[in-house]
Amino acid sequence: MTVALDMSLVQVSLAGRPVLRDITLTLASGQTHVVLGLSGCGKSTLLRAITGLVPLHSGSIQVLGRQVCAPEQSNINSALGYVIQDGGLFPHLTVEANMQLPAVLRRHTRATMNQRTRQLMTLLQLDAALLERFPSQLSGGQRQRVALARALMLDPQLLLLDEPLAALDPLTRSDLQQELRVLFQSLGKTVVWVTHDLAEAAFLGHTVTLLHQGVVEQHGSFSALVGAPATPFVQRFVGSQRLLHALEVPT
């Protein structure tokens, strides 16, 4: 197994409050790894720790064999694509400028950026007419596609996606889930996908990690999470979402 991400006894505290506690995870390359949990459990902080945006209180993180928060952090960041919860598009920049921003910061040539932009527009099924629009002129699904295109601009090996579909309506969300699963498989990317939705984890994840109050409650396959809960919290979390998805609309 080729390892894309290795976390050992990672602890993170924010404003003196422990947020991640002794997180130890090894994630294989070329797979989608889903991080589940309730709001405030540390999911987003976990992604920010991987990027080096928050300092570690203790422990270590290696991305593609390189230590996070080391002198070569800029090289690590070029191997990462990161999409925050609302997409994080800059409202004053056009779609084209938003997409190309990582390449501009890396001083890529205009010809290289334009070629990569065309590739990504095709890959993500975005109409070229959108390039001159601003984020406020896009639908929710289009904004998420543009945010993903920006994350893919430098062709990173590891994608970090923080609840990228949470704000979308159910039909758009379902369509994008299906498209992205096929896309990730075709590109062979390693993906860390944060969500609170059990059904989304089942559909997308090769492995699933359930966090609770900054601690890993269970890590492994989705079938093990559902069929063999490791702790009472895992059992309650799975049971609550089973009930939610079992609800039927009265006729």
Based on the model shown, name its key terms.
Rossmann fold; 9 helices; disordered C terminus; 2 domains; alpha/beta; 251 residues; 4-stranded antiparallel β-sheet; single chain
Describe the structure.
This protein has 251 residues and is α/β, with parallel strands linked by helices. The chain folds into two domains: 1-79 and 160-246, Rossmann fold, CATH 3.40.50.300; 88-155, no CATH class. 39% of the residues lie in helices and 25% in strands. The protein has helices at 43-51, 73-78, 95-105, 110-123, 140-152, 170-187, 198-204, 222-227, 232-246, and strands at residues 3-14, 17-28, 32-36, 58-63, 66-67, 80-83, 158-162, 190-194, 207-212, 215-220. The strands form two sheets. It has a six-stranded mixed beta sheet with strand order 6-7-8-3-9-10, sandwiched between helices. A hairpin with a 2-residue loop joins β9 and β10. α3 packs parallel to α5 (140-152). The radius of gyration is 18 Å and the shape is globular. The termini are far apart. The relative contact order is 0.17.
